[in-house]
Amino acid sequence: MIAFSRNDNSLLSRWWWTVDRWMLILIVILIVLGLWLALTASPAVAERLGLDSMHFVKKQGLFLGLSLISIITISMMSGNFVRRLAVIGLPITLVLMALTLWIGPEIKGATRWLQIGSFTLQPSEFLKPFFIVTTAWILSADLRGEKIPAKQVAGGLFLLVVFMLILQPDFGQTILVSTVWIAQMALAGLPLTWLGVAGGMGLLGIGIGYATLPHVASRIDRFINPASGDTYQVDKAMEAFGSGGLFGKGPGEGAVKLGLPDAHTDYIFAVVGEEFGSVAGVMLLLLFAGIVIRGLAHLMHEENPFRMLAAAGLIMQFGIQTLINIGVNLALLPSKGMTLPFISYGGSSMLALAIGMGMVLALTRRNRFITPWSDPLGWKAAE
């Protein structure tokens, strides 16, 4: 345990006494589990692809290290600094998303990535935290009584983001972003009538996607009627849970991962179920729930509208993404390529989640120290 005196005014000491250490510990536990599970889930996939058996483990370790550095660095920032980071980052990610349509490789019918050396960047992952915080900043102006059309501006920005996501296309991220945006609008006081209209438009969008995009229709059809198409991955995942039982077959002893194409990414929770059992799966789910509950508890008495809307949106994104991934693994939701936060392999997803959770830690700090000396990270500043 790090020991700092409360009278110590150093940057690290002030950070240590103001950050939510329990939430930080839970996030670090997830990061460590992610590396551990990479050791058991990814070698079989790497060997099947003709790569070194530790290929994904090494890259996962690098991403996790960068993620931990990002979380700690961003958690030291003030709310003002977090807002500036999001406002600058959002247009950059939108430009990068536009570039994917021109120069991005097409993978499984989608153009969501940019190849930068040996690293494949997915800009839409970074879009999520930047969009959520920017939307919170816009809506908070309305809650502070400023005379600007905040909800209209937030709505226009939302339509732009959804348009860019659909062009890729990425309906999973579209649904995630839309759900968080509607929740933020509700917290900002949007009338129930308009929330109903927004929800109806979302359902209409799903219907249009089903009618116009064959891969969307195929996934929904296979979910409703498994006999209508290929359900190999879902079937293998359910086989893994059945094989693992309550306590699992033991680390590295799982057999289903040998034939599961996305065992190290979208279906890593199935590997957990087979090798560590349903009890471990529930414990992992409780770990995610603990982070969400801890984050939301901070907002019960939050008086600053920006902090409340931004942190609530980021926590909801983290929780909903977790539920979508686990729901797909358990055949409770249609198949969708969405990672399990800090557990699944994926550099863009992991670094983007690190940015988001670093922002949550920054926005939920309490009892900030105010000192008269230079304050480069904005500790003295308020929104």
Task: Break the fold down into its secondary structure elements and pairings.
Elements: H1 11-18, H2 21-48, H3 55-75, H4 79-103, E1 114-116, E2 119-121, H5 123-143, H6 150-167, H7 171-187, H8 192-212, H9 214-224, H10 232-244, H11 268-298, H12 305-329, H13 347-363
Antiparallel strand pairs: 1-2
Can you describe this structure?
The two termini are 32 Å apart. A hairpin with a 2-residue loop joins strand 1 (114-116) and strand 2 (119-121). This protein is mainly α and 383 residues long. Helix 12 (305-329) runs antiparallel to helix 13 (347-363). It has one domain (11-363). The model is unreliable at 368-383 (pLDDT under 50). The longest helix has 31 residues, at 268-298. Helix content is 67%, strand content 2%. Strands 1-2 form a two-stranded antiparallel sheet. Its EC number is 2.4.99.28. It is found in: Cell membrane. It is a multi-pass membrane protein.
Summed up:
This protein is mostly helical. The chain has 13 helices and two strands.
Please estimate the helix content: 55-70%
Please mark out the parts with pLDDT under 50 across 5 or more consecutive residues, or reply none: 368-383
**How far is it from the N-terminal to the C-terminal residue, by CA?**
32 Å
How many structural domains can be distinguished in the coordinates?
1
**Structural class category:** mainly alpha
Percentage of residues in strands? under 5%
| SSE series | HHHHEEHHHHHHHHH
Shape: globular
**Global Rg:** 21 Å
The largest pleated sheet is described as: 2 strands, antiparallel
Mean pLDDT over the full residue set:
87
Number of strands: 2
Individual helix count: 13
Order of the strands making up the biggest sheet: 1-2
